[in-house]
Design goal:
The protein is mostly helical. The protein is built from seven helices and no strands.
């Protein structure tokens, strides 16, 4: 049986692993979008290669969580943290999968559509999604419910940006059906990445309070 000190060291290591996995997934998203915008097939292929590493991190974190449950009798908050970690790695793995989806679209633009580019610039949407992911993980490891609430609130901006880009895209759709379809798919994957980031943020309050529900944005007055 572990001592409580050893157990808390294991929990700290779990936080570090979660952050490492999330950072790797965020890099995948950034590389996939860069490949899409620049027609860089080798960069797109590198994203596919990175997916195996994220999957391995997922397995390692799951194994650590199972070990923590087996070697200690966690208190309620500890159980919530371990359960949240198991949920978070599922979201992060899906983010990595969506990065792979975007990288495959980048490859199709170059190989099947003769070097075409997305019909609208998905860069701003990608930057917002990456920011949400980065800050949701920061909120989780720092147990910062206010930051988590701000992440959740900013999902509305993601939705507005997606709708604006979609409206702009539809003006091209008549004469460029395939590029429009692939562009829209990439946008949908980026929106889903943001949704997974919000899922992570919404678990922060649960870890601390045991209450699982929508987060309320912090008041401007404090």
């Amino acid at each position: 049986m572990q001592t409580r000190h050893e157990f808390h060291e294991e929990l700290a290591a779990l936080d570090r692993q979660l952050l490492e996995m999330g950072t790797a997934a965020e890099r995948m998203v950034g590389s996939a979008v860069s490949a899409l915008r620049g027609g860089d097939v080798p960069l797109a292929e590198s994203v596919l290669d990175q997916d195996d590493a994220v999957d391995e991190m997922n397995r390692d974190i799951e194994a650590r969580c199972m070990r923590l449950l087996a070697l200690q009798q966690p208190m309620a908050r500890d159980l919530r943290l371990i359960g949240t970690a198991l949920k978070v790695i599922t979201d992060v793995e899906r983010i990595g999968d969506h990065a792979v989806d975007i990288a495959k679209i980048a490859r199709r633009f170059t190989q099947q559509l003769h070097g075409s580019r997305p019909l609208v610039d998905v860069g701003p949407l990608a930057e917002m999604a990456q920011s949400l992911l980065r800050r949701s993980l920061e909120a989780l490891v720092q147990r910062d419910a206010d930051l988590a609430a701000r992440v959740v609130a900013e999902d509305d901006q993601i939705d507005e940006t997606f709708q604006s880009l979609r409206d702009a895209l539809f003006s091209f759709a008549g004469s460029s059906t395939a590029p429009a379809a692939y562009t829209l798919l990439a946008m949908v994957y980026l929106e889903r990445i943001a949704d997974h980031a919000v899922n992570i943020a919404e678990r922060v309050s649960y870890v601390e309070t045991g209450h699982l529900g929508p987060l309320t944005p912090p008041s401007e007055n404090g």
